[in-house]
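Amidohydrolase family protein
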Amino acid sequence: MKVDSHQHYWKPSRNDYGWLTPETGVLYADYMPDQLHPLLQQYNFDRTIVVQAAPTIAETEFLLSLCDKEETLAGVVGWLDLESDGFARDFARLLRNPYFVGIRPMLQDMDDDAYILRPKVIESLKALAEDDFPIDLQLRPRHLPHVVRLFEKMPKLKAVIDHLAKPYIADGTLEPWKQQIGEIARHGNVYCKLSGMVTEARQQWSPADFIPYVHHIVDVFGTDRIMFGSDWPVCLPTEYGEVVKLLLDALPETVTNEDREKLFGSNAIFFYQLKLGTV
């Protein structure tokens, strides 16, 4: 079973995205399951994980409502306010929905790069760790020192780094991203999504641009803790098939067919504890 571990659905008319404005060009449009479904069929993907794009519980509930209608949806990585006094109540309520499989704070949009280390945030993350419930970490390289400290404090937190932490692919910079992501990878309960790379690359990118980054992630996380994510529609104008191909072309030669099955499916199923029927 093939799983795309990271894609989005949205409607700008919902008015809670903030970042999604007419200036975002092609992204300022409705992107819904009927548009992605043919691409999933074309590239033989059976299920997807849809990830929040707005810092509201209302958007999480919107995405959960899609799961009952769209057979390709395996789960929702939603949003909760980690500093809210009502966090425990909201978390318990959303947990009643079997499609609620993770949460993601929008760290890259926050003024405080060390937000993830705030005392009330840590208390909420402790509740996630106790439930073995996953968190997606939306990072840029400036956040990595704080995330290193997070896992020193909370080694049992189950997490996945989205988009390789958005390294500076456009100018080929590797350090200190390489060293810091390696420190994080030492924690066996932390995974990494090989996703979102084209948005960090040059406009006229070459497949070779991604190789040093992909090879390092495979080296430090291993083939049991990496997942493919298309980041559709954020990847546009790069087409879905191009995103799949660039990752396949960038993988080390040592990656076997069995490893590819993990990368494109079973690792995401295990990490998010997806309850999947037969396809």
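thats it. Residues 257-271 form the longest helix (15 residues). Strands lie at 3-7, 47-51, 73-78, 100-103, 135-137, 159-161, 190-194, 226-228. bye
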